[in-house]
Specification:
- With about 325 residues, the protein is an alpha+beta fold.
- The protein has one domain (about 35-325): Glutamine Phosphoribosylpyrophosphate, subunit 1, domain 1 (4-Layer Sandwich).
- The protein is built from nine helices and 13 strands.
- Strand 9 and strand 10 form a beta hairpin.
- Helix 2 (about 50-60) packs antiparallel against helix 3 (about 65-75) and helix 8 (about 255-260) crosses helix 9 (about 265-280).
- The structure holds glycine (GLY).
- Glycine (GLY) binds near residues 212, 242, 244 and 245.
Length: about 325
Amino acid sequence: MINRRKFISAAAAAGMAGLIPKSLRSVNLPVSRAGGELPVIISTWKHGLPSNAAAMKVLKEGGSVLDAVEHGVRVPEGDPDIHSVGLGGYPDRDGRVTLDASIMGPDGNAGSVACIEHIVHPVSVARKVMEDTPHELLVGKGALLFALEQGFKQENLLTPAAEKAWKKWLVKAKYEPVINWENEPNKYHDTIGLLAVDKKGDVAGACTTSGMAFKMSGRVGDSPIIGAGLFVDNEVGAVTATGMGELVLKTLGSFLVVEFMRNGMSPQQACEAAVMRIVHKLPENKKFQVGYIAVNKNGETGGYSLQPGFDYAVYQDGENKLTDAKSYY
Ligand code: GLY
């Protein structure tokens, strides 16, 4: 059943833009045009805090907004204690660590890799795909061969801790994603998605993950799919997603949030409206977590999730802070 109170702010703005049926429109609340101090960096989960700090350092040292988002997400990619991104990520059911990543810049250019093995920093391979090939997405063995040609080092990403967790899982081998389960014991969950707006108002984003722990071999989530796990439009802003990628893929979530913002919603309203889209369209919404974060070109930020437990980090006005997202349930 629709929770009308939670639905109201998103519905109001969407109704103004003619984006939802008349029956679901509510009062005409004014659409926020507020902005925040630039630059601003926003990223998913607690691992967003050190990622934001690394990205801000790049901007302060005169690096581009694209350099900032890439270097920001390289922090959790290289941290073996984060079991949902890069080195130390939990493997698939066959014990292979396969990674997905994407990056998108202010010029609308984008690059991705999916199901790539043995490379600690898939986001940097995604950037190479974007800058040095005519393509947007390389997968599996082809992505690895490309990375090696580009000089990336082949490494074993399955750490002893991740291997131990996989062997424990194998005892029952029950294939059932559980909401926020990666939160325990380290409170590090899922994808790192990081968005930045520099002081000129240029926007970029990056997103990288080892995907669902113990997934089926070959499973690819939303993170490397431009428009699903990440979308940037330099006229509007940027969005990234975390959680159960299948729900984000089925609703093309990040593109949807950007389009809601283009039509007048604030980042917060737009994230809420995209979560509502999942609630209306996908009956499996009750079983899974999805979270969106968004920033507009003015530096206004927002975040919202299906289930409680999602947090995101915002670095703005000299402060790098973690915020608990509001949720539909
Ligand atoms: N959101 C990450 C994934 O589903 O793979």
